[in-house]
Amino acid sequence: MDIPHGTVSGYAYHHCLCLACYQAYQAYKQHRLNSGDIPHGTHTLYKYGCRCIHCRAAIKAHRHVLREKREEKKATEAQS
Ligand SMILES: [Zn+2]
Ligand SMILES: [Zn+2]
Q1: C-beta separation of 34 from 50 below 8 A
Q2: Nearest ligand, CA of residue 59?
C-alpha cells in the first residue's frame, strides 16, 4: 500500500509512525490548536494538545461515554 509520507493522513489514517508523518501530524495539531476554530471544552481540542480545565472536563465526559458504550456492548454480547 502506498502511504503519502510526511502528511497528516499518513499518520492519522494509515497509522504510519515514520518521522515525516509524525512531524506533519504534530504541526497540524499545533496549527489547529492555534487557529482557534475549535471551541474549548471539546475532546477534539484535548486531542490536539489543549490541557485547559474545559477540555480536560470534556475528555473526561467523553471517556465516560465510551466506557458506557463498551459496557453496553458487552451486555448485549452476553445475552446472545
Ligand atoms: Zn510515513
Ligand atoms: Zn482547551
Answers
A1: no
A2: 2
For residue 13, report the distance from its CA to the centre of ligand 1, in Å.
11
- What's the predicted TM-score (pTM) here? 0.69
Distance in Å, CA 60 to ligand 2 centroid: 13
Rounded distance from Cα 78 to ligand 2 centre (Å) = 39
Cα distance between residue 49 and residue 35, in whole Å: 13
Range of the domain at 62: 39-80
Ligand 2 centroid distance, CA of 54 (Å): 6
Is the Cβ–Cβ distance between 10 and 3 less than 8 Å?
Answer: yes
Per-residue pLDDT tens digits for 11-47: 989 999 999 999 999 999 999 999 999 999 999 999 9
Q: Is the domain of 45 the same as that of 58?
A: yes
Same domain, 31 and 45: no
Mean residue pLDDT of the chain comes to 93
